[in-house]
């Protein structure tokens, strides 16, 4: 019997990830029974961090980056097994991306004015201990990304992870603290709780030692943070439309849209959730999607079945979120080859599988009479979230018109959605995109407060 070496390696890696999920270590660094304990520990660590030089902070961040890359596959497999969502290979890429392209201390800069009346500096200073509420869609990626940025700014952080991703999130917290200790830093630069709940999040949001809260999740959690009385950074929901006009490279547009839509089974909030295509090229676009990009076009009857499966009287069917196209089709009795990666159909913009953010590789295509009609439909579908939008066009004037009309934190032109976070595009990576509160793509400087230092009539040597 021939032994499949790759299969054996995959089994071993799955077992390792499962062991991490079932392991109950008594020495989980940074993980506490009680939110108050976690905040107190992070406060003590911050007293050390704020006295560190920028070089010392960067040394810890470098160790976090290295640790993340070393454990990227374990974290990816843990997340898929614990949450039941996403794609292991894509999650590995996301961890590599967050390790390599999340800004560190280089993002902490000084502004200076020098003139006849002296010298004025504006420095970026730490808030202290930051509270962070993280999602189950990108659990460890968000924990690591936020920690790097917050630590670079001189802060420490306390997490209240999503209950569906506790073990993955807390394993990331442990790795971060191991990295800090290995680089000569303090323990508890990132803290969490063993059993995060609504009550533990309320403790965080009302605690006197938490001046800033960063929330990455749905509209409910962001609203709660904004009503807490604390300063809040809110990364909320999106329903990003991809507009395709007749000037676009239609074949490339089909490839880019499906690559973006299916990345990690459509879990990223920036991913293409629906397409608005000008009528004259809609058939060509769908043809490329089916013939070249692994899409399966469903009938009206199948649309109804899928709608009833995916959307329940209580909202989205959580058993469908983050599942691949083959699994979703199997749930409605359709058996397809493993190369099918996206479900497509044509519908009106009001169709529930189009107007709702699904976080599944289901892509509704809405026809538009002309460009103005397409912009109007895309703006309606984005629902004023001001999060992300995409366009495939070679007409700069049209791209400009669309950008102004949709007014999102992210606009990707002629590329897959993930180009927005540095994967196949320029710029840095982040997993906290604060569309609702206006900070946009967060980085280390986002988690600092500005402090002005003035020296009058001195230190100008011009």
From TrEMBL:
One of its GO terms (molecular function) is acetaldehyde dehydrogenase (acetylating) activity. The keyword Translocase does not apply. Keywords: NAD, Oxidoreductase. SUPFAM superfamilies: ALDH-like. The keyword Ribonucleoprotein does not apply. InterPro entries: Acetald_propionald_DH-rel (IPR012408), Ald_DH/histidinol_DH (IPR016161), Ald_DH_C (IPR016163), Ald_DH_N (IPR016162), Aldehyde_DH_dom (IPR015590). Pfam families: Aldedh. This is Aldehyde dehydrogenase EutE. Residues 29-425 form the Aldehyde dehydrogenase domain.
């Amino acid at each position: 019997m021939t032994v499949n070496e790759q299969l054996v390696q995959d089994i071993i890696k799955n077992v390792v990830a499962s062991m991490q999920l079932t392991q109950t270590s008594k020495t989980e660094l940074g993980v506490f029974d009680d939110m108050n304990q976690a905040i107190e520990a992070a406060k003590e660590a911050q007293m050390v961090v704020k006295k560190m030089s920028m070089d010392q902070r960067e040394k810890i961040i470098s160790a976090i980056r290295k640790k993340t890359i070393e454990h990227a596959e374990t974290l990816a497999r843990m997340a898929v097994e614990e949450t039941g969502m996403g794609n292991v290979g894509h999650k590995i890429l996301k961890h590599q991306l967050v390790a390599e392209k999340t800004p560190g201390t280089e993002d902490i800069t000084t502004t200076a004015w020098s003139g006849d009346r002296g010298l004025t500096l504006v420095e970026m200073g730490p808030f202290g201990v930051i509270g962070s509420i993280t999602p189950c869609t990108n659990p460890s990626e968000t924990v690591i990304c936020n920690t790097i940025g917050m630590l670079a700014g001189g802060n420490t952080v306390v997490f209240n992870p999503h209950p569906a991703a506790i073990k993955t999130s807390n394993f990331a917290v442990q790795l971060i603290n191991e990295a800090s200790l290995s680089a000569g830093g303090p323990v508890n630069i990132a803290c969490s709780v063993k059993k995060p709940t609504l009550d533990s999040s309320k403790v965080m949001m009302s605690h006197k030692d938490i001046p800033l809260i960063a929330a990455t999740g749905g509209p409910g959690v962001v609203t709660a943070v904004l009503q807490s009385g604390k300063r809040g950074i809110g990364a909320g929901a999106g329903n990003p439309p991809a507009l395709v006009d007749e000037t676009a490279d239609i074949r490339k547009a089909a490839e880019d849209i499906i690559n973006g839509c299916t990345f990690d089974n459509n879990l990223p909030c920036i991913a293409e959730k629906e397409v608005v295509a000008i009528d004259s090229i809609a058939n060509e676009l769908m043809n490329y999607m089916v013939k070249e990009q692994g899409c399966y076009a469903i009938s009206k009857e199948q649309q109804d079945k899928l709608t009833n499966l995916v959307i329940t009287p209580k909202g989205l069917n959580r058993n469908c979120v983050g599942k691949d196209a083959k699994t979703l089709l199997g749930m409605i009795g359709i058996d397809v080859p493993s190369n099918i990666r996206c479900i497509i159909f044509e519908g009106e913009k009001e169709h529930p599988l189009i107007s709702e953010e699904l976080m599944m590789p289901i892509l509704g295509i809405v026809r538009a009479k002309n460009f103005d009609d397409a912009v109007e439909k895309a703006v309606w579908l984005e629902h004023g979230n001001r999060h992300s939008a995409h366009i495939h066009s070679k007409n700069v004037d049209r791209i400009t018109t669309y950008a102004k009309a949709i007014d999102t934190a992210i606009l990707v032109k002629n590329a897959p959605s993930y180009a927005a976070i540095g994967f196949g595009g320029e710029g840095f990576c982040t997993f906290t995109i604060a569309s609702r509160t206006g900070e946009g793509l967060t980085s280390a400087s986002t988690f600092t407060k500005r402090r002005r230092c003035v020296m009058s009539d001195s230190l100008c040597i011009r």
